[in-house]
Write a structure and sequence with these properties.
mainly alpha; elongated
Length: about 110
């Protein structure tokens, strides 16, 4: 998760993003929104995030939502359609497509 970010100069900026990621529901968080939470320009945020985490923010954010959705599915409280909608995927088909894409490549770890 983002809480292992070690650059003390930027640490306080990035930790402001944690609550936003943890409360994601119904829609993705854009790079611009994430940058604003960190009080950084969009370009600086995108560059630093990729440098630190080894992937673009959009990919990390999508993987985070996917992981949360899969966790929710494992609780068996909600069906595929509801979970997909809860975590900002267009529909269960879109969710399934994203699952297949990322589960095939297990090196993608948010």
């Amino acid at each position: 998760s983002l809480d292992y970010f070690v650059d003390t100069e930027l640490d306080s900026n990035y930790t402001k993003l944690l609550p936003s990621l943890q409360n994601l529901r119904n829609k993705p968080l854009s790079v611009g929104e994430a940058a604003a939470f960190c009080n950084l320009s969009k370009s600086h945020f995108a560059h630093m995030f990729s440098k630190v985490f080894g992937m673009p923010f959009a990919q990390y954010e999508r993987l985070y939502r996917l992981r949360c959705a899969l966790t929710e599915l494992n609780t068996k409280k909600n069906g595929l359609k509801e979970v997909a909608e809860n975590w900002g995927f267009y529909d269960k088909s879109h969710f399934s497509k994203i699952c297949k894409k990322y589960l095939k490549n297990s090196s993608n770890k948010p």
